[in-house]
Specification:
The complex is a heterodimer of chains A (290) and B (286).
Chain A: H1 2-35, H2 52-58, H3 61-92, H4 99-107, H5 114-124, H6 131-137, H7 154-179, H8 183-191, H9 196-207, H10 209-225, H11 228-233, H12 245-255, H13 259-289
Chain B: H1 3-35, H2 39-44, H3 57-64, H4 76-106, H5 112-120, H6 128-140, H7 147-170, H8 176-183, H9 188-196, H10 201-217, H11 220-225, H12 233-242, H13 250-285
Helix pairs in contact in B: 1-13, 3-13, 4-7, 4-10, 7-10, 10-13, 12-13
Classes of the chains: A mainly alpha (290), B mainly alpha (286).
């Protein structure tokens, strides 16, 4: 008996986690998937209706807005964060003084929650008292900046706040990548007469490809899961103009008692994450093997 | 390149770096000065203006008497709720992660790598996909709207990350160590206790900081699985900002936001090195 325990101890130690994983991850995903094929509203009920909830989902104008917003948000958030992060990393890599302090400053927003970030930017972008007032005080008395309450512009305030929060992280990733570049390569290029910009563009940036991919995966992942920032900054408004899928899911599953619809939207979100993740992991594994 | 060009290049680099540093610091500065003004000053001046005199009344209001929905006890009770959620959740998930990582890295068995892969997937799933069944399970267990329930949820979904951290750390340690110790008759836990734990300080620090930041900053689980009286600080902050009894009080909002951010900011400034390491380990390799 003792001997048996001793040999199987490693598996026993792992058992609670494995059980929790099977139930709370895979089991729950299956449960949500099942629920998305039923007509459940307030309570789960297992009357199957096929793909009806998905049909309802995609004919729901609010879901369409959330999806459109997600595309705008993902695209701009990733693009601006990458450009900004890369730029800051390259500049920081020029043997500048106080590099540590600057790095700390660029990265500190990452330690703050999205709710605090949203609260802060809600005040900064306040129509009337925020940036608008500031610029008017400088003498531009006709200046208008009311994105927070404009249907078409509210989603861009989310981009601004999210970039502020996460671009420092991209900077840290690129800086780590740049530090890994072989100095001799750079020197050789410069002896050959390449300018600094040419060296970066033709030699160093192509070497940063894995960092680009890694950063894109991380940022896309943050973007698809984004929920708290919208909740704190715009509350999804005005109306539902700045909703993202995560906010849609929360509203319909928990406030509107539309469980089936909420489950269907959650499944679409999962598929979105998988669509990004699977190719990435596949390419990662392939490069590791070769 | 002549020296004038070189100097201009340096000036450009420093100019841009400093401009961006100011832009990143801006929101924190705005929050701080706004929290120290009274409401007339806020309406009269602009967001960058310094307060005429230091006025901490918004801070004490945010802490002990501001309204978060119908309750008007400030953020204090919710701050302590967060503390009561974070401490056990961080300790338990770190401990479990350490044991899991030890097994997955040093006591591999048939299928253990596949298990690890299956577990890693948990770092990536959008939690929306587990929200509904977890609510049901908590209700069945009688843990709906309780601090214990929130601790359990954070442990379950935090263990994927903590296991990843410890496994990747222990996998770099040669397996001969365990083999030699086993030949000497040392049992499983003794090897962990005597050999692995003493060299784990860096990874424990990274994991604790990562978990602390994640759980303190969580809003999704907090808003779905807490009830009146058990809400964490992020949920209370959001309620406070959206409660407008007696007019908007931007100074109180900002003081409350800083209070909610202080613990994680403190950790970041004290142990930033480990914080960054956790981010890259959790996000890149994840």
């Amino acid at each position: 008996m003792f001997k048996y325990l001793e040999t199987h101890l490693p598996k026993l130690v792992l058992a609670p986690t494995v059980i929790a994983m099977l139930v709370c991850m895979y089991g729950f995903i299956a449960w949500t998937a099942g629920l998305s094929f039923t007509k459940s509203r307030m309570l789960p009920q297992w009357e199957f209706v096929g793909l009806d909830q998905y049909a309802r989902l995609f004919s729901n104008p609010r879901w369409q807005v959330a999806l459109d917003n997600l595309f705008i948000f993902v695209f701009l958030f990733i693009l601006v964060s990458l450009v900004l992060g890369l730029l800051l990393a390259i500049f920081l890599d020029q043997k500048v003084r106080a590099e540590g302090a600057l790095r700390t400053i660029y990265l500190y927003p990452m330690a703050i929650s999205f709710v605090v970030t949203g609260t802060a930017w809600k005040w900064i972008l306040n129509p009337g008292l925020g940036i608008e007032k500031l610029v008017r005080d400088f003498g531009f008395t006709d200046f208008e900046f009311r994105w927070l309450v404009e249907q078409d512009m509210a989603i861009y305030t989310i981009v601004i706040a999210a970039v502020w929060q996460s671009s420092g992280f991209v900077m840290a990733m690129f800086l780590a990548g740049l530090r890994g570049v072989d100095d001799n390569l750079v020197k050789a290029a410069q002896i050959d007469g390449a300018s600094k910009i040419q060296t970066y563009w033709h030699i160093i940036l192509p070497m940063m490809k894995p960092v680009f991919f890694g950063a894109i995966v991380v940022l896309a992942h943050i973007a698809i899961k984004s929920f708290d920032l919208v909740q704190a900054l715009t509350g999804g408004g005005p109306g539902y103009a700045s909703d993202l899928p995560a906010n849609f899911m929360y509203t319909f599953a928990f406030s509107r008692a539309q469980m089936g619809l909420g489950a269907a939207s959650a499944m679409i979100m999962l598929c979105g994450v998988l669509a990004i993740l699977v190719p990435y992991l596949y390419s990662e594994l392939r490069t590791k093997r070769s | 390149m002549n020296s004038l060009q070189l100097k201009m290049g340096r000036a450009l680099i420093y100019g841009l770096l400093i401009t961006f540093a100011l832009l990143y610091l801006g929101p924190l500065y705005v929050m701080l000065v706004t929290s120290l003004k009274d409401i007339e000053e806020i309406r009269g001046g602009n967001i960058l203006a310094l307060p005429e005199h230091l006025n901490f009344s918004a801070w004490s209001k945010a802490w002990s008497s501001a309204c978060t929905g119908t309750d008007c006890e400030g953020l204090a009770p919710y701050f302590w709720n967060s503390v009561r959620i974070v401490i056990p959740a961080v300790l338990i998930s770190t401990l479990i992660g350490a044991f899991n990582g030890y097994v997955l890295a040093q006591w591999q068995f048939k299928g253990s790598n596949m298990l690890f892969g299956a577990l890693l997937f948990g770092c990536f799933i959008p939690f929306q996909v587990i929200l509904l069944p977890m609510a049901k399970l908590l209700a069945i267990l009688g843990l709906a709207n309780t601090v214990t329930g929130l601790v359990a949820v954070h442990v379950v979904y935090g263990v994927t990350f903590t296991t990843l951290f410890f496994r990747n750390y222990y996998v770099a340690i040669p397996n001969e160590l365990v083999r030699a110790a086993r030949l000497d008759g040392a049992p499983f836990f003794t090897i962990f206790w005597r050999i692995f734990l003493p060299m784990s300080t860096p990874i424990i620090v990274v994991t604790v900081i990562w978990q602390f930041t994640q759980i303190w900053n969580d809003f999704l689980f907090g808003v779905v699985y807490s009830g009146p009286g058990t809400q964490p600080i992020t949920v209370a902050l959001n309620n406070l900002v959206n409660t407008s009894v007696g007019g908007k009080q931007y100074n109180v909002d900002m003081a409350a936001a800083i209070i909610a951010a202080l613990p994680t900011l403190f950790v970041y400034f004290v142990a930033g090195k480990y914080f960054v390491r956790g981010l890259t380990a959790g996000a890149v390799k994840g």
